[in-house]
Amino acid sequence: MHQQKRLASVDALRGLTVAAMLLVNNPGDWGHVFWPLEHAEWHGCTPTDLIFPFFLFIVGVSLSLALGPRLDAGAAPGPLLRGALQRAGRIMALGLLLHLLAWWLMHKPEFRVMGVLQRIALCFGFAALLACGWRSAKAQWALLLALLLGYGGLLLGAGDLSKAGNIASWLDTQLLWRFAYEWDAGTGRAHDPEGLLSTLGALATTLLGLRAGAWLRRGARRELCWLAAGSLLLGALATAWLPWNKQLWTPSFVLWTGGWATAALLLAHQLVDRLQWRPLGRAFGVNAIAAYAGAWMCTVLLEGLGWMAPLYAAGFGWLARLAGPSMASLAFALVFVAVWALIVRWLDRRGWYFKV
Questions:
Q1: Quick check: 346 and 326 in contact, CB under 8 A?
Q2: How many CB atoms lie within 10 A of CB 87?
Q3: pLDDT at residue 5, as a whole number
């Protein structure tokens, strides 16, 4: 969606986030992942756990920057909303297509319905609906509070917070069944880190980005600073009741990661938009979905054709023997990102931008 006022800082932050996604998704050796690039096993929050919340936060920011000026200028919200929802549908279809490709080429036992792009599509559509149809700042803040309290109440009031006993996994079992990310045929239990109920937390993250984008558009840096500090403080205090948990996307996780995302947005705005620093990561940012989907297909093809293991052994086996397997895994991930950085920079220089 073309923005009337495109901020280089937002493109740069989105691009760095996509580059980080590629880094953690392609370690070369999943048995020896460099430890900072691992997700928390269950409760907790590692640097890697910040990446997806950052992206969804930026989805909200970008929608505010794209739709806000047009609506303020008197554009009819209906056509804008239809266009946004159609794009959300295309992102959803792309996510399903990529999972179909992985199921076919990698001979997975079941097709997975939910996933990263599917969650992005749902959050994009939700934020667009609010941006066009429920524009009141007070109403959006009230909805954010309702999402946090309502979802938190569901997690605390039904089941427990273990992987097997939480209500989000129970719902994934009932609705996704064997088409979830994890399925245990013995117990009949399913779990999906991008499952249905936990998407409520992801929606809250996107809404937080929508409100931050409105302040960024008005140059309200003081309000953004308070939002960052307040979210971090509340996110830390809320762990007394609900721990940080990316797979459940708990309300405390929403606030904690949202605070860091707001701080990163403020820093990027200051350095890139105000001090005119070079927008590092911009090439990834303006071709974000294309880079993610292209990297996914590249990995699936390498794995499906049986080329990944010999390629890794030939190119990085010596480093594993010299410096250890985790260093070799990190080196592969860095090279993978560097290759895609060259690709998106080449596309950017030619003005080729692939929009879903």
A1: no
A2: 18
A3: 58
For residue 341, give its domain range: 1-38+280-356
Indicate whether 114 belongs to any domain. yes
* CA-based nearest residue to 144, from 134, 156, 158, 155: 134
Same domain, 27 and 75: no
Q: What is the pLDDT of residue 107?
A: 86
Residue ending a domain, among 274, 293, 324, is 274
- Cα–Cα distances (Å) from 112 to 45, 82, 192, 309, in that order, read 25, 28, 9, 24
List C-alpha distances in Å: 207 to 219, 227, 291. 19, 13, 24
Residues 23 and 80 grouped into a single domain: no
pTM of the predicted protein model: 0.95
What tokens does 109 get? 């036992």
Tell me the average pLDDT across 183-204.
Answer: 95
Q: How many whole angstroms separate alpha carbon 138 and alpha carbon 161?
A: 32
Given 239, 274, 309, the domain boundary residue is 274
Decide if 353 is inside a domain: yes
Following CA atoms 176, 182, 187, 188 in sequence, which dihedral angle do they give, to the nearest 10 degrees? 20
Domain count, the chain: 2
Q: Which amino acid is at 202?
A: A
